[in-house]
Write the structure tokens for this entry.
Amino acid sequence: MLVAMWMTDDPATVRPTATIADAAEQMSRRRFRHLLVTDRPGKEGELLGIVSLRDLARAFPPHINPLSAAGWTDGPRQPVGEVMTRQPCTVTPETTLEDAARLLLERKFGALPVVRGKRLAGILTEADVFKALLEIIGFIPGETASPGVRVTFDVLEGENAIALIVELARTHGMRVASVLTMEHRGRHLAVARVLGGMADGFVGGVWSSGHRVLSVVVDGEHRPPSDAT
């Protein structure tokens, strides 16, 4: 998966000459935490920097809320260029999502500008990565409970967990929505989400195959793993 699939390709921008108060107003009205600073409006501009809500808040007097109307009228008139981060860390649309997520985590960034050469292509935020994760595991926005059964269980290193899940789903008349494998705190785990059919029979099949079931969620509700045996 690539950054291009999840980034916002029409990001909010501001000129370096815009006032800090004006930038704070734009963030508040549009509910953004980051603005990209460009030499021209929109994606036609060259990326000069990035400014966060924290950057702006530091420039405000302690008694003025930068997200309030008072902050917009009485806030600092210095240009955004004075508080922005210059030459920010960037990714390209072809960067893998996992590499971008690693940068966000390791560098403690809230967002990454996305560029093609020197030109702005978009922005990738923490929220975009969260959305990607939800779609990967099959979550449907707007649903109060995730349908079907999600089972987390131990696997052996190198084991073909996908083949096991597909066979169990077929046996119990279910459809595979997603299968993830990972190493977590020294353990090899698989997380399978399947739809339709008999959830208890499926979970029981995982136990019967010699795997330890760690978590069972049926239609959004947690169940003790032993209840499925």
Notes: The chain has seven helices and eleven strands. The chain has a mean pLDDT of 90. Residues 20-30 form the longest helix (11 residues). The radius of gyration is 23 Å.
